[in-house]
Design a protein that fits this description.
Layout lengths: L2 H34 L5 H4 L3 E4 L2 E5 L53 H16 L16 E5 L13 E8 L10 E2 L2 E6 L9 E4 L25 E3 H5 L2 H8 L3 H10 L1 E2 L10 E3 H11 L5
Parallel strand pairs: 4-6
Antiparallel strand pairs: 1-2, 3-4, 3-7, 5-6, 8-10, 9-10
Helix pairs in contact: 5-6
Length: 291
């Protein structure tokens, strides 16, 4: 290949680069942006931001917390579902905890998913004055899980327990277990630093109702950690608290709640949901908190 042909090929490649840069790097993005500014689309394209009296309050697409500096629920506000995104609802750290159903034993550095669910359920129960108990949770709000040690059969199951430890109840916080005995063996509290994986890990269901009063979305984070909505069931158990804090009747709060409840997508996909930020802002406008 001579020098002239090499120059022609590179010049053709450069022209193609310039043309594609103008079309795909400038014209196309500008066209899409202009299309997004069409009435009916501009709100979503610009982040679905919500302003009140010129002050930015948030986005209807991203959840946020309604708690005080210590993380306690502000009584006049409906609460969002938990978030595992950064310190909570951080768009720059969107994601889940990556803890799954098999996460039932606490470690010194991290609570198991089961204990997180138990703790959250107990807290919501106290806050909303409902039964916060759940299956496989102790009365202290941790995972009800035993390590059962002793001879095993061919399938790996302990046939005659010789020692039983409540692995999520350390002796530093309690001197007694949620369960007195298991198959005739006294249940011990756990000693810090001791590895109980040598035993058979056995979750204990307990006597909590199969359908807890505290809904699942009140105790688990969404996959993104940014979900702005809660279930109608979670909203319902918060009505009395919010009404009391605002000095109005539960029926008045329920009327506002109904106005901010979205039905199933296309009438049959998903479940009805409540946008927490929009609901709380509407309540602030209609019924400001009395204290």
């Amino acid at each position: 290949m001579n020098f002239a042909n090499l120059v022609r090929q590179h010049w053709a490649a450069l022209r193609a680069l310039l043309v594609l840069t103008v079309i795909l790097g400038i014209a196309y993005p500008v066209f899409i942006w202009l299309m997004a500014q069409i009435p009916g689309l501009s709100d979503k394209a610009n982040g679905s931001l919500i302003e009140v009296d010129g002050k930015l309050m948030g986005s209807s697409l991203i959840g946020q917390s309604f708690t005080d500096a210590d993380g306690n629920a502000l009584p006049q506000y409906f609460q969002s579902r938990p978030s595992a995104a950064g310190d909570g609802y951080d768009p720059m750290a969107s994601g889940a905890s990556n803890l799954g159903p098999e996460s039932i034993v606490d470690t010194p550095s991290r609570s198991s998913l089961l204990t997180l669910v138990c703790e959250r359920s107990a807290t919501v129960g106290r806050t909303e004055s409902v039964d916060g108990t759940r299956p496989f949770c102790t009365g202290r709000g941790v995972g009800a899980v035993l390590s059962v040690m002793g001879p095993r059969d061919a399938h790996g199951n302990v046939v005659k327990p010789t020692r039983v430890v409540s692995v999520n109840e350390p002796c530093e916080t309690t001197q007694t277990s949620f369960l007195d005995t298991y198959e005739g063996v006294r249940v011990e509290c756990a000693t810090s630093g001791e590895d109980y994986r040598i035993g058979q890990i056995v979750p204990i269901r307990g006597s909590a109702p199969a359908n807890p009063a505290v809904p699942a979305d009140a105790v688990t984070a969404s996959g993104s950690g940014l979900d702005p909505d809660i279930s109608v069931a979670y909203a319902d158990i918060q009505v009395n608290r919010v009404a009391k804090a605002r000095g109005v009747t539960p029926e008045q709060v329920r009327a506002v709640l109904a106005a901010h409840t979205d039905g199933r997508f296309l009438g049959f996909l998903g479940e009805p949901a409540v946008n927490v930020l929009e609901l709380n802002l509407d309540l602030d406008a209609r019924y400001p908190a009395t204290s």
